[in-house]
Model the fold of this input.
Amino acid sequence: MGGAKLKYKRVILKVTGEVLAGAQKYGIDSKMVRAFAEEIKEVKEMGCEMALVIGGGNILRGAEASEGGMERATADYMGMLATVINSLALQDALEKSGVSTRVMSAIEMRQVAEPYIRRRATRHLEKGRVVIFAGGTGNPYFTTDTTASLRAMEIGADVILKATKVKGVYDADPLKHEGAKMYGELTYIEVLNKELKVMDSTAISLCMDNQLPIVVFNIMEKGNIKRVVRGEGIGTLVSAGKR
Ligand code: UDP
Done:
């Protein structure tokens, strides 16, 4: 398929729920979901095996909801359910554009998604289906970043593609500080020590312990997922050591 050279053959793409909300910041913007599905389709056609982890931040984040007085674990379960809603929206858009998909949920709900079974997930990928991991890890007090790390390890992904709204990892928030500098490469330890906002520390530690590279890149720029899997060197690479 495609014949294009791929640097990464099997990838996990982590997308925060906010990307699906588009300009409205809350809920699901169907235009955004369709555009995103088209991008994924193009990468799929290059022969890349793709699994997706979608966050739930466009609907609910447990930590924020618990600040209002709700029990944290309950709020986290609500957050996990939010990721299922997002996963179904994305599945719908992908299937409409002709991409075969499976949603696998860490929280069992047989009517809407398959339960997550590792061997089944890898089989789906081998058959060319896009697998969407819904329901986070199934445990409160975790995030979908950690879900992406965990699933990446389980399915033997070559890399985590961490999609953001900025070009990569900066030394300060580039939306607030004009002079913020972007890093081309970082080690896991640097990310942890400098408390850089790549992914939460649980997710980073898991990648560090298992030497799984992370590429942080801007998903708002069309064609970027393709560029990353081809190894065009955009964004910030987080790995064990600099080249
Ligand atoms: N969540 C959880 N366990 C997990 C994954 C997610 O409890 O394994 C909950 C948590 O409350 C989180 C919410 O689901 O705030 C949505 O996920 P996340 O914040 O990672 O979404 P994103 O910020 O990527 O949109």
